[in-house]
Structures are given as structure tokens and as C-alpha cells.
Amino acid sequence: MPDLNTEQLIIDIPGRADSTALSLQVGAGETWGVLGPNGVGKTTLLHTLAGLRKPRKGRVKLGTAALASLGRRTIARRLGVVFQDQQDGFPATVLETALVGRHPWLSPWQMETAEDERLARQALETLGVDHLSGRLVNTLSGGERQRVAIATVLAQSPDTWLLDEPTNHLDLHHQVAVLQLLSEQARSGRSVFMCLHDLNLAARWCDHLLLLYPNGEACWGPTETMLIPSALERLYDQKLITVEADGAPVFVPVRG
Ligand SMILES: Nc1ncnc2c1ncn2[C@@H]1O[C@H](COP(=O)(O)OP(=O)(O)OP(=O)(O)O)[C@@H](O)[C@H]1O
């Protein structure tokens, strides 16, 4: 039984014709990458999968249940979302922010317990931002904020992770550390579905890819079947050179 699936899903982008209907089955243990050029609808898709936007057609299901039939708390226990450039509504410390990840597991008006704090601190430590726990999030660097956002979802402990550009703002070491963490989450039976701009990171870390083309076409499947240089060149309107490194293809843009 896939954790997250879509049935003939068409996302709603105002003023744009219907794109290819997406019937995706994101299984437990799988890591999916969504690739496509700017403005193609990656974020809109992620928001639709999170239940934050209504599909134009079709539906999203969590397990056997239609997402639209589930309450926000149930969804929040099962789906964790890392948004692109998350803006904080009010000033909060790093620890308070990570504790928000525990809220779906509390009953209304219940205060966080010592165990919630332990889990939040542990998540901050995993992302290497525990030394910042007393700092206001709005004083952090872009990469530090991104790691706090990921730690918050780690503290939430959902079955399914949805991430919009999780490597944004991260240096190379932290990009790899975050992708490694997401792979470990998948290995422990969770599912991971993320938008990525870096084709090579996606090729290396994702076992499934969804390609969204500007003309509304889409295709998806196991990564090795999606890494066809001509298809990737058409995706980005960019000539590529393919080389092999560490037993896997690496795509380098042609200069000029
Ligand atoms: N509320 C809205 N009203 C009108 N158009 C919108 C709205 N929200 C998004 N769009 C448009 O929908 C399209 C898809 O946007 P989306 O953010 O999903 O793209 P994306 O693939 O994530 O892009 P990027 O790679 O630049 O992050 C864009 O052309 C965007 O301008």
C-alpha cells in the first residue's frame, strides 16, 4: 500500500490549460524527486499534495483515505512539509520552532512534555543546530533556518515527507547531510517526495523521479529509466554533457 498516491491529479494553475493527469504511487521506503524548470508547478504540486490547495481535477490519498476527508490534525501526524523559504509569523526561538513539530501529537491545550522537548532537542542536534536553540529564528542565516525547518519536521516524525527545495541555502556538506538524513528516513519505512533544482543530486539520491515539462507533459518512474539525456535537455531547454562518476551518470551543462 503506497503512503501517498494521486488519482488522475491535475494541479490548478490559474490561466493554464490542464497538464498531464498524475497517477503517482509513492510507496513506503521510496525517495522521489520532482524536476522541472522555474514556474512549471513543482511548488503548486507540493502544496496540493499537502492539502493546502485544491486540485483542479482528481484526488490525493494518504494510504486508502482521500486527503480531503481527513482532519488537519490527522494530516499533520502523517505528512510533514518543508516549505521553500519559510516565513515565520511571529518571533520564536529555534527550540520553540522545533517544538511546533510536536504539536500534532498533543491534545488541544496540552503543553509540550519533557519527552516532546527531548525529541525536539534531538532533532536539532541531528541537523547540527542545537547550539542555536535559544536564538530567535529570524536572526539565523538562510542555511541555519533551512536546517531548523527540517529539524522541525524530524521532530514531527511523519510517515511522509514533502519538501520544497530542501537543499536551498545549504553548503555542499549540509546538502549531502540532509539528503543522507532523508535517505535514512526512507530506509526506515517513510516516504520522501521533494522538489529539487539540482539534477545531479536528484539522480544520486532519489530512487524515483517525476519530470514536469513546461508544455504540461509529465512522466515519472524509477530514476534509472528517467535519466535520458535528450529528455533532460528538453526538460531544461539546456544542452548537457553526460559523464560517469562513481558508477552513476553526471550531467554537466554545455557552456555558451
Ligand atoms: N496564486 C497564484 N495566482 C496566479 N498564478 C500563480 C499563483 N501561484 C502560482 N502561480 C503561478 O503558477 C506557476 C507555477 O508556480 P510554482 O511556484 O508551482 O512553480 P515552481 O515549478 O515551483 O517554480 P520555481 O522552480 O521557480 O520554484 C507559476 O507560473 C506561478 O507564477
From TrEMBL:
Keyword Nucleotide-binding among record annotations: yes
Keyword Signal: no
Keywords (A to Z) from UniProt: ATP-binding, Nucleotide-binding
Every ABC transporter domain range: 4-239
Coiled coil residues, start to end: none
GO MF annotations, alphabetized: ATP binding; ATP hydrolysis activity
Pfam families xrefs: ABC_tran
Top-rank taxon, per record: Bacteria
Entries under PANTHER family matching the protein: ABC TRANSPORTER ATP-BINDING PROTEIN, HEMIN IMPORT ATP-BINDING PROTEIN HMUV
Protein name in UniProt: ABC transporter
